[in-house]
Amino acid sequence: MGRSVARGLAVLAVSAAVVSVGAAPPSSGTAGQDSRPAEKVPVAVGHGGAVASVDADASAAGVEILRKGGNAVDAAVATAAALGVTEPYSAGIGGGGYFVYYDARSRTVHTIDGRETAPLTADSGLFLEDGRPIPFADAVTSGLAVGTPGTPATWRTALDSWGSERLGALLKPAERLARDGFTVDATFRSQTEANEARFRNFPDTAELFLPGGSLPVVGSTFRNPDLARTYAELGRKGVGALYRGELAEDIVDTVNKPPVDPASGYDARPGDLSLKDLATYRAKRQAPTRTSYRGLGVYSIAPSSSGGTTVGEALNILERTDLSKASEVRYLHRFIEASRIAFADRGRWVGDPAFEDVPAKELLSQRFADSRECLIEDDAVLTSPLAPGDPRDPAACAPGGKAAPTTYEGENTTHLTTADKWGNVVAYTLTIEQTGGSGITVPDRGFILNNELTDFSFAPANPAVHDPNLPGPGKRPRSSISPTIVLDRHDRPVVALGSPGGATIVTTVLQTLTGFLDRGLPLVDAIAAPRASQRNQTTTELEPGLWDSPSRARLEALGHGFRQNPEIGAATGVQRLPDGKWLAAAETVRRGGGSAMVVRPSR
Fold first, then answer.
1. How crowded is the C-beta side of 526, counted as CA atoms within 13 Å?
2. In the predicted model, what is the mean pLDDT of residues 463-467?
3. Whole-prediction pTM value?
4. 289 is catalytic
5. Domains along the chain?
């Protein structure tokens, strides 16, 4: 283990003891009209397992399962189902995601690709009309953007492989939460307000999320009895009920004939989803990506997500720089440039490996990273869009060929992290794409459908360069989701984390990891630190904490250009402490702050 990592982990162990905050035990019920909402704290330390998510009721659902003897996988499913209630604009059974699992008994990491897929009838012209890409705003609120949901299949695959409880038991907390209601906070109201105009185009969506025709009031109780009934059905019949039968028919009808209010005049382009698309969908168990960093093993999700390869390549590029001793300006400069390079290579090489020849192993080789790292200079800035390198034939400091800018990805999603008393860990990021997904609710079912297919390139970003992310039949769109688990030299967990944020997920995970492993920040502080995000674009996004800092002027003097982003990501994580305790950490402010809970808090 490198000196900087060893020093950082020693500091973190001490810091955890100092900052530990015991999460209050959740009430036996969930937040409803007459019940107190679960307490929301960003860090908790204790024994018996841990859960970190953006929402207190969801974290409480996971801890409830752990208290009853469930494992980390069971808790992750219960937490995810609850997030489908309280974070319906970010996640739910109408979407998909990526699941990373550490098995304590075998000390191995496993993953599930639960990404949504395009209809079997889709081709590269899915989003073209008269040879031109349709307006992005028209695509996101349409049946055309809806992919076959992968979240229920992910739950089934995870539980069949590593779970210990029945799905029906794991859905009970979320079913109760949907039936009895949760307390509306400012984040839920503001997200509803941001979607109000398009929600009003769909009567079923408006009836559910604009009760009485108005925005939900902060402090009021929000109920979703349709979703409670849907969860109860899945609990009785299994998730196969979503892929075959009446629920599957309801989804197909909704996608292909979006239930628009005729008076709205809105043209919601229909999709072409079929019962066969649903019946043949499979979540994929696959090997994780692995990168060695400072003597630690960094594991994440392999393509179809670009998260594991892009975070891994950037870490390999940073391996040669002692970030623990670097000034803040040099640290940020190196972090920004490594991100720029890794995104240039991601755009050229990463797509769905069932359709594209993705050189994942070569992208993660130290040889390739070294050939790219030498492009970075301490007194100058690389130009974006930067051309990609060739991982199969690395040439030191090669200028590369044709560059392609990074395409847009919706910036919502949600992430949860769980651990149990046996030492198993889950990092799970799930999504329905942008805030509010497609805006289309399946009538009488209580959930919004995703608009994940807008993560495909509508047309090649650069016609002279092969684009591996064009649509295709049954193809998974490229993602930036990066759930990550770090192991020590004995293959025991050090930390697990992830974040929402579209393409900013990669840079959020990378910055949090380097803040934690290299800069010696306690996990909650690494999560809270102000963020930068460079994605092979002409300017780097900065949160206000960096925009207003002296470092910005010093970086601009080197040649960096910046633009503001008020909020980047919303990470959560868990850390294994030396004495067998778990530390759970979440955001302190972003998205209203997150919720960290443990089974038996330390006082």
1. 34
2. 86
3. 0.94
4. no
5. 89-285+408-578 (3.60.20.40)
